[in-house]
Write a structure and sequence with these properties.
CATH superfamily: NagB/RpiA/CoA transferase-like
Strand content: 15-25%
CATH class: Alpha Beta
Strand order of the largest sheet: 2-1-3-6-7-8
Helix content: 25-40%
Structural class: alpha/beta
Radius of gyration: 14 Å
Number of domains: 1
Order of helices and strands: HHEEHEEEHEEE
Largest sheet: 6 strands, mixed
Length: 144
Amino acid sequence: MTERITITKKKSRELVRLKSPAAFPSLVVRQLSFFLDTLDPYTKVHAYDVLPGEIDISELGLVPIPDDLQDAIDDPAEVYIVPMLGVNSLNYRLGRGGGFYDRLLKKVPSALVVGVTSESRRIEFLEEGHDVPMDIVITERGQH
């Protein structure tokens, strides 16, 4: 059994940035596409706007999550595709550091939350009280 390392999320972000870029991003996008194909075509899906260093899912043509938190809450989706710099073994995400997605996801608890990252971005860190675990994590190896 692997022992969990207790380091802060801030330190984890620094470590992830030192790692190589996300491995096999096209395979991650393909796995996400396979997942989306399993959903009812009328399922409302919102996805993150891609920033440098994140897996580029823009080719999938998904509706972006509104930038304004209240707008996002007022127009909730059934599925949220969220970015992850990294993920721990309990499916907590290491995000961008601003807390936007955690605040949004707490307001829409019935939504399915899907994190997108690479296997190379798995890192152990101690999640914080405000963090929301991912229901599904998609990597180049599939769904977890």
